[in-house]
Amino acid sequence: MITYLSNNSETVLAALRQHITLALIPVLLGFLIALPIGYLGVRFPWLYHPLVNVAGVLYSIPSLALFVFLPVVLGTKILSPLNIVVALTIYTVALMARTVADGLRSVDRLITESATAMGYRRVRRLFDVELPVALPVILAGLRVATVSNISLVSVGALIGIGGLGQLFTRGFQLFYIEPILVGIILSVLLAGIADLIIVLIQRAVTPWTRVQGGRA
Amino acid sequence: MNLDYLFDAAHWDFSTGSIPQLIVSHLWYVFLALLIGLVIALPVGLYIGHTGRGSFIAINAGNAGRSLPTLGLLMLMVTLLGLGLLPVLIALTVLVIPPILTSAYAGLRTLDPGVVDAAKGVGMRPMQVLFRVELPMALPVLMSGFRSAALQVVATATVAAAVGLGGLGRLLIDGLAVNDYSRVLAGAIVVAVLAVLLDLVLALAQRWIVSPGLRASK
């Protein structure tokens, strides 16, 4: 495996770089899109159930199907990385919209009422009070979305663009284990590191959750 | 978008490679993977949840499972074991174990400890507590884990076609290989419909097996 790595370091690095880009851009985009959608699901309670159901159906579309199907809808080339980015963004939105709504709904009413009593208007209350209080729930969802995006990217290799997934298809075609192992290990490591980074961000931005945990 | 392939009657007879035949083989993989996964993960999850021993396995299984790329695992297994059903089943089973294990554990752990104490108090043996109190009460959580495992495996079983097996992935892979987007679209639609229908069936099953006494409070 070491010899494989040293002989093919450029291929592996290029695959890794593509993998990171293809997995993380959708996380960011999906998160930004999901925030307003999730908020709407809380602001207008009748929207909540349709939102959860639509998200569930979107999430059940197989990634391979979405990857090959999007070029037809978007008019992109089948080999365009855009297909992967859009597909993973859809999954992220499906997952995160619900999480954002659940997070905001979990905010104690006493907190929002006190904020209102202190003179917060709706928008400022949302950004200064509700969102921060909902952050632990939202970031937990973001961890799930990030980790599953990272493992989903490799399915794209079946249509020619899949970051580390290309190592899988190459190893499979050559009946050669090394690239497959390297791909799996790097993919799992990448997911672990990304997960850890979000956990650290969460610790940094929500110090109050730790204080409570310490007391209990 | 064209739906010619999906609505062509010639693709709906029961011949090899027809849509119904692919659905059957697809469901067969899904069924086997879920069954094997259940046999492995349920006892382990219940044991961990009941005794509280080894909880870190149950907590981390979910994340570890999600981060394993199924395509890589599948191709690794095929390279190791050769073509066939076994490597595909191994890869799919690895996929369904974490959600079942984690939800079995979570279902038992989130029970009101008072209920378990009461069961012990009325003289139930440990096995009776587990099977007559804890398991029935944990069923809603357990079923939601099982349903998400089923959804995942229906979607992922398409990958089996990438290593030469059947299932609905054939429509996607073969359609792609010959630039027949109508076939790809048919595959995508049938898989998505299958996933939604299966979830519906499991939701009904859940209503049926969960004690009505638990429904009132939720």
From TrEMBL, chain A:
Give the bilayer topology: Multi-pass membrane protein
Could you list the residue ranges forming a coiled coil in this record? none
The primary location reported for this protein is membrane
Where in or outside the cell it occurs: the entry states:
Cell membrane; Membrane
User: PROSITE patterns of this UniProt entry?
Assistant: ABC_TM1
Keyword Transcription recorded: no
Transmembrane region positions? 20-42, 54-74, 80-101, 150-168, 180-201
Kindly give the InterPro entries that the UniProt entry links to this protein.
ABC_transp_perm/SBD, MetI-like, MetI-like_sf
Question: Which of UniProt's keywords are assigned here?
Answer: Membrane, Transmembrane, Transmembrane helix, Transport
Q: Where is the ABC transmembrane type-1 domain?
A: 16-198
Protein family membership? Belongs to the binding-protein-dependent transport system permease family.
Q: Any idea what this protein is called?
A: ABC transporter permease
| Organism per entry | Paractinoplanes ovalisporus
From TrEMBL, chain B:
Domain of life assignment: Bacteria
Name all ABC transmembrane type-1 domain ranges.
Answer: 23-202
Localization recorded for this chain is: Cell membrane; Membrane
Primary residence: membrane
Residues annotated as transmembrane: 27-49, 70-97, 149-173, 185-209
| Presence of the UniProt keyword Transmembrane in the record | yes
- Signal peptide residues are none
Keywords per UniProt: Membrane, Transmembrane, Transmembrane helix, Transport
Query: How is it placed in the membrane, per its record?
Result: Multi-pass membrane protein
The UniProt similarity line reads: Belongs to the binding-protein-dependent transport system permease family.
Q: What is this protein called?
A: ABC transporter permease subunit
